[in-house]
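Comment thread on ticket #2218

A.B. wrote:
> Attaching the input chain for the structure job we discussed in standup.
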Amino acid sequence: MDLKLLTHLCRMQTEIYHLPIHIYENGQPAGTFEEQETSFAVHEFYRHSFSHNRKKVDYLLTPQFLMFGYIRIYGTGLAVMMGPAIIGTATESDARNILHETGLPVHSRQSLQQFCEYLRHLPDLSFEMFLHLLCLEDGFLNQEITEINTLTQHKFSAANDVSIEKKLLNKNQDYVDHPEVMTDHGYETKIAFYIENGMTRELPEYMKTITSDIGRMGNTALRHAKNALIVLNSMALRAAIRGGVNADIGYKLGSVYLEQIESCQDIGVLTALSEKMLTDYCSRVKESSVLHTDHPMLRQILWYISEHLHQKITVSEIASAAHITPEYLSSFFHKETGETLMNYISRQKVQEARQMLALTQMPLSEIAQYLAFSSQSYFQTVFKKNTGTTPELFRQKYYHS
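C.D. wrote:
> Ran it. Output below, let me know if you need it in another format.
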């Protein structure tokens, strides 16, 4: 296929599917077709993600649900990049995160609004539809059939922990020998806790220890594995939203994983996908609990608080460290974050306390002292205000020995 014919095909496909398409010849831009006239070359940043492998066709789904596809055309120096398309509607927070990741030069409120407007006019496609279009484009260009499950399989290494895979494979015989098997939901409760609290270090360790019988959920080992992972996806989604992930983002993520689960045709791939999925939800909770800012003074304030959580922190001490007055500090912090400084400090201390209650048998009095609360009773009051329950009841529900 020559460049002239490729250009014609890509222009037609953009007109039909409203999807941006970019042509490269020997690694250099050779044509772009977009319905929007824009100076935001988002695709150029993400193109480098495809340079690390030589796969004929590949895709990328970013944390902000932008989708890109990349196709190398056999026997030529030509390549096509599709996207960005997007799942759902981008928020201003999404826009800021994309700009932070890509380093695109947006330095004013007006240019930020222009970028938000650009994102809002991107084609809104489901993940499955985008992969169908990518496979269709590859069929046009390389004259061969690519299945969606072929695309998704290589994204997840089946060489990770295979204990769950072995357990699921053994289920097929279990159904014959022990049809009375029931589901044990204990492990789900613990996984939900780790996700809800953004415990990215502890979750993978716990996943290695799972031995609970997950019960009969399908006629075959593969269908069982898919159904079990669909249930886990729903549980993890709800836990992530409780942990602070934006509900719209959570539901979009759940939809993406549901499509990926159904497209898998191998239990080993499903096993690796389950680990990726749970880690993704957990990481997003952890990310949502941290205030992100480009303001150097606010970064300094947040760092000071995180480094002194086990001490009594006063406004005066933070102000001194930041070389500003306490009055200005309080006003500045509220303006930048939308919450008071002392409320933020209390919330961070309670988050630390939740993990200590769930993972240790340390008495409440020692936890209160460790986190520099003035008394155990004050610790209990602050804890209940932030969580809606008492430390005792929280431990009873979540303690993991």
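A.B. wrote:
> Thanks. Noting for the ticket: Residues 221-242 form the longest helix (22 residues).
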